[in-house]
Amino acid sequence: EERKSWKPFIGYDSLRIELAYRPRGSPAGSSSNSSPEAFEPGSPGIPPSEPVCVRGGLYEVDVANSESYPVYWNQSEKIPVMRGQWFVDGTWQPLEEEESNLIEQEHLSCFKGQQLQENFDMEVSKPLDGKEAVHSLKLSRTHVDWHSVDEVYLYSDATTSKIARTVTQKLGFSKASSSGTRLHRGYVEEATLEDKPSPTTHIVFVVHGIGQKMDQGRIIKNTAMMRDTARKIEDKYFSNLATHVEFLPVEWRSKLALDGDTVDSITPDKVRGLRDMLNSSAMDIMYYTSPLYRDELVKGLQQELNRLYTLFCTRNPEFIEKGGKVSIVSHSLGCVITYDIMTGWNPVILYEQLLEKEYDDLEDTWMSYEEQHLLEEFYLTKRRLKEIEERLHGLKKSTISKTPALKFKVENFFCMGSPLAVFLALRGIRPGNSGSQDHILPRTICNRLLNIFHPTDPVAYRLEPLILKHYSNISPVQIHWYNTTNPLPYEHMKPSFLNPAKESTSVSESDSLPTLPSPTTSPVLARRHYGESITNIGKASIMGAASIGKGLGGMLFSRFGRASAPASQALEAGKEGPELEEKKPSLSQASITTQTFPHSSSGFLDPTMDLEHRIDFELREGLVESRYWSAVTSHTAYWSSMDIALFLLTFMYKQEQIF
């Protein structure tokens, strides 16, 4: 691109690159200014053959080939690196290396060792027009005049010159201008070793969802946006902390072969573009629900997470020594795969639970003597098989230590635009009787689970109603705008109810339970002012789809149906609630059951119970947003959000600073 500009490395990186460069010798010729002795003793020297680690360890510089490349992800295009010597006044952009080397060589040959400094200093105050060039150098389409040692000007002989084009465009000179452009030897700022990044104490793995095959490298760009946004927030709010949070992209999809090109070969040619887009995006969901390819997706992400962690610790040995922490930010389907890796869930577990229940149901039915005999034999054989499995497992455990799925403990698991709640609901997870996160994700695996979503994101669902059912009537926590002054800490924010206007007739109007209607018997009122909440799993609808996991059709209707309905219809739906609860087969995992409390006639959990920590956090809608347009764009709008960047850093810096 013509508008590309050079960006300087920080001082620490510049000096280390220079030290690696100098032993190789400068094309402009040797000089006292380019010898390693010019540096102070004890400077961090690097062997010429080794690449130089720069930009906080994310990139390396190959000094011999003058290019930079990322360490933790693949990038086809190398980033060019230039040793700047002569710079354009005003913009401080470097001249191209070839011309710069010629000017430097001429400058040294003319002025090195000559006692002219005092004379030139005396003439600095004189206007330029009154001076004649002490020395001149003719280049291909330009010439350089030295009016003094520190007054060097570039003049264009032909405006087609690349240097002149760059200079005139950036400085606004006309092509016919006779005035030269002043050049400076050396950059405007002097590089110092003190200008170095803070040590990384927290790394964040950023996991993509569907569509990576369609747009390879997208997660790298998205992570770069999130990293740049987080840098700005760090500088503004956390600059007093001498630590740093690093974001690393986890690209797990493009390396997987899966079915090869089988799906492409069976795809019709009509509207091929749309079909290819669906094959490269929505097909990932079908792959994940396939027993044949699910493990391949899980292993792909698991191996990439472990590879990145091992690589980072190898290059930063002090990270573990100083108690460095790891968090994961996952998007869309990536949340589900990450969750399954952390918890070790797989469809076989669910199948075994359903099979166990099927056999238990057989005991309650009438059976012939032969059937009873076969069932007893089956149980004896199954018990024997289990004993053999345990013995075999014990032998293996003594010789081979089981490696955990992940080589690190996850401090925070941030879900963005996540359908995880739907997957859990369809796996039989039902609300429990405690407000602990352990109900869906044990704290021993992950210290904190946080579910972030945009209010109009059609893929995002709430997690809190899967822990305590009455939270379907409690609004998610509103994420602070990044420029809010003195925001209330999230742990101090009180729950607010979605239906504060009316009390339910089934709940006594006592002070102990204000605005706590039973979700099945209270009329479904209009949502908040900005529109219908799309994340309210378990909310009673006019069609009686009050129960979580009633089926995807019910969920979709609940999402896109009207927010309000006549009170009589809502009450009728509420009357059906207890019957639906009783008829619903128990497909939940062991120890996950819906209990009925004495004061609740509807079968719902104790509404006075609170979550230990809030999990659902909702972005605030813009005042001028179109809800329909937001529904299309919101699922991918998380990466550059300053609000989300501040939210992430607030929880990751929580141990070091109370924000």
Automatic annotation (TrEMBL):
Biased segments, Basic and acidic residues type: 573-585
GO CC annotations, alphabetized: cytoplasm
GO molecular function: metal ion binding; phospholipase activity
Polar residues: bias regions: 502-511, 586-597
Region (Disordered): 23-50, 494-524, 568-597
Similarity section: Belongs to the PA-PLA1 family.
Protein name: DDHD domain containing 1
Gene symbol of the encoding locus: DDHD1
